[in-house]
Write the structure tokens for this entry.
Amino acid sequence: MELGDKVCVVTGGASGIGRAAAIALAAKGAKVVVGDVDASGGEKTAAIITGAGGEAVFAACDVSREEDASGLIDLAVDRFGRLNVLFNNAGVNPLEGTIEEVAVEEWRRVLQINLDGIFFCCRRAIPAMRRAGGGSIINTASPGSFKGWKNNVAYLSSKGAVMSLTRALAMDHAADAIRVNALVPGLIMTGIGERFLAAQPDVEAVRAGIPLGRLGQPDDVAPLVVHLASDASSFSTGAAFYVDGGELAG
């Protein structure tokens, strides 16, 4: 799964799954553009990659803003000449509550980042990938794309929509040799995962509900991103790839 001919954009690359994936992609030879609102963290990710001999650049980017998302894609093409892979990983989960509790502004913010961000990045990336002869888009979904739980109405709605958008894009752009798949991480110990776990009334019950018996780490997810970015997954599109410790198996 060497990626020496690939140019990859990773959103939400300042920490967690995004950072682990960016580092893993670069370790396989990809040129990586790291996008995030967190400039300090994003610059650190790029520095880790370049310090290890890889090629990376950071761009401050709020994917909920169309001009930022477009600029991120344009940077990849301007800097490296093409775009082959887009990992739409940026997202938030403010644990906002029920439909009666969530503020309208918070509802809109979650949808803007988690869904509009993917829409804006893909809208700009697809023409660039078409010019490059094809590509791979990887969208971060969630177990919440397939099941519900309490007090998280905006996040669950956004992640259900991400899965539907993934399938729609896969159908629309298969003829362009652009594959679009969804990554489905379970409870991964990133900032979002840690906050989610801390908010649960029975943490041990949550842990016990993971069949593999442990919480996930960003490095558990990164190899699957590499696989989906590579030509090894060339016959996969419109699919959901679980890395959830078996959470959705039951």
User: Anything to note?
Assistant: The longest strand covers residues 178-185. The chain has a mean pLDDT of 96. The helical segments are 16-27, 39-51, 66-80, 104-131, 153-173, 191-198, 203-208, 218-229.
